[in-house]
Write a structure and sequence with these properties.
Helices cover 61% and strands 2% of the residues. It has 355 residues and is mainly alpha-helical.
Amino acid sequence: MLNRKLEFGPHSPFDPEERNTISAFWDFVRHSSHEKAEDYLETVQAHVHRTDGVGAALLNYPPVFREKQLGPKRRSVSTLVDLLATATDANFEMFLPTRALVGRSLLMAELNTWRLLHLICQQIFGEPENLVETELHPIHAQVHQWLHGCVHTKLTEEVLGSICMDGSMERRIRIEAVRSLVHLWENRLTYRVRNFFPLLEATWNARRRIRVSVGTRLGVSEIFRLIQAGCPDQFMEYFSRPFLTKDEQEAFQEFLMGVSTEKLQTLEQWLQEQGRTSISPEEAPAEIGHVAPRDLRYSGVRAYEFYRGRYLQAAARRLKNLPGPKKTAEEYVMIYFLDQETRQPQGVDPRAGAA
């Protein structure tokens, strides 16, 4: 049996709270009577050390904020802002600094470490995948929280990236999105969405706690469930404005229901044809073609797909000029806060206290 204490490297990406969770997990497994305990600990130790190694590798690449000169060419944050603010989905990846790309690998290494701990927790505590966080063992619940924190960081980077590439957006907002991205890349070892965009993290956490019934297209019951699950007031207030655009309304409905606007319109048409105002949960999948996520073993994948699927559908509508929302609900809210940030007096951050 392994008796030594788990150690973290000097450039470990795990912050003190996360290290406490991993250490508590380590001690629990070490003192458990599970027949695979030693194998589990050896695997965890290897994952943590490899992830620390990626964190160390990140520091080998120059900071994004540092200016460099190569002959007549000058690289700086300003030139990066100009470059990314003119990028598109077709070429965005080609302009990213190496530090940003290594940082993405580091994030996935962290996420996969938490995923490993999540899978071991299921074995140690005998907990199935479909339990909600409040039903999990406290250590498993913390692992679940940090796992989704990694997913949320990845999603935040994608939301900001989509705004950078939006040629219809005001340049000052695109520039602010690039600056937020650069800040994320520059501080990858310590960046946490809960510290910089707490509203988004709280919103995503609330959304994954609710169950959708798809009873009516309005999603009234889902709105109440979202509020009860802790969705921030600022998010709900944004989509309760009196002059909400049709695109914003439909993007919010997609966020609530987890179903595309096209499928919701099919549902509405079917209800009208049947002379009904609601549909049972049992009928809904058959009528709107809504299927369960393919990977039921791993909630982090579902959380990522929940945003990514809506983003791809919105991007397709923009490209082909089709009806329906051209952005996700998260993009609309992020644009609002970036807009507010560019209008705020220096030193005032509209994101503060959004949790």
